[in-house]
Amino acid sequence: MTRSITHSLSVSVFLLLITCALPGHSAPVVWQLHDLTFADGGSASGAFVYDAALGKVLDWDITASVDGNPTFGSNVNIVFVNGPSETAKRVQGNTPFSDDFIFSHGATPETMGFLSLVTSRPLSDKGGIVSLVTGAPPLGGYLSCCESAIQTGVISGFLATAPEPGSVLFVLIGIAAGVAQLSRRRTR
Predict the structure, then answer these.
(1) pTM of the predicted model, to two decimals?
(2) For the structural domain made of 29-160, what CATH number should be given?
(3) Tens digits of residue pLDDT in 13-45
(4) How many C-beta neighbours within 10 Å does residue 38 have?
(5) CA angle 83-61-115, nearest 5°?
(6) What are the extents of the domains in the chain?
(7) Residue 36 CA neighbour count, 13 Å, CB half
(8) How far apart are CA 124 and CA 79, in angstroms?
């Protein structure tokens, strides 16, 4: 009995040491758009990779679709991707406690579109869930399109990250260790 307790304790200490001894690093995080809707009923979906240490958007793939009536007069489907005539940047939000991410699309005024996402707090490399600021521009996020000063504001949505593979690995190791403990106890 004392041998199994000693073994359990040594496995737990080993896992704790591995977790604490891993070098801390700041890796870019994939932020996914969830439930993002615009005032005219349109929506946006997709994700972007953001490195908070650099303050830079590294990659993005976001699609914004708007019914068009009455905002733009026609249906709009804009794909914001990392390409030659596309840009994405982080700018200081309206308060020190927020970020504003602006994605642009198109090389000519007729094809240009802009998507602004204003976060309720600055994004970090730790991930998590962050609400988007709603309301009319300039305080809230918006979508504008097609040589038009007309915009439709964000009325709901949030950003979220998936857990890092390393975190999932440690959870799985912990579950495996627990199952091994239980199976040893049952065989005795």
Answers:
(1) 0.70
(2) 2.40.128
(3) 455 445 444 444 568 999 999 999 988 888 899
(4) 24
(5) 90
(6) 2-25+165-187, 29-160
(7) 33
(8) 25
**Which residues does residue 188 pair with via DSSP β-bridges, in sequence order?**
none
Contact 80, 101 (CB under 8 A): no
pLDDT in tens, 97-154: 788 888 888 877 777 888 889 998 889 888 899 999 988 777 788 888 776 667 788 8
- Residue pair 104/112 in contact (Cβ under 8 Å)? The answer is yes
CA distances from 178 to 11, 57, 119, 183 (A): 10, 40, 39, 9
Asked if 53 contacts 31 with a C-beta cutoff of 8 angstroms, the reply is: no
pLDDT the model gives residue 167: 59
Query: Helices 2-21 and 165-187 meet at what angle, rounded to 10?
Result: 180
Cis omega (within 30 of 0) on the bond before 163? no
Residues 14 and 11: their CA atoms lie apart, in Å, by 5
> CA geometry: angle at 141 spanning 139 and 147, to 5°?
110
Which region, left, alpha or beta, applies to residue 171 given φ > 0 means left and ψ of -120 to 50 means alpha? alpha
Provide the residue type at 149 as one letter.
A
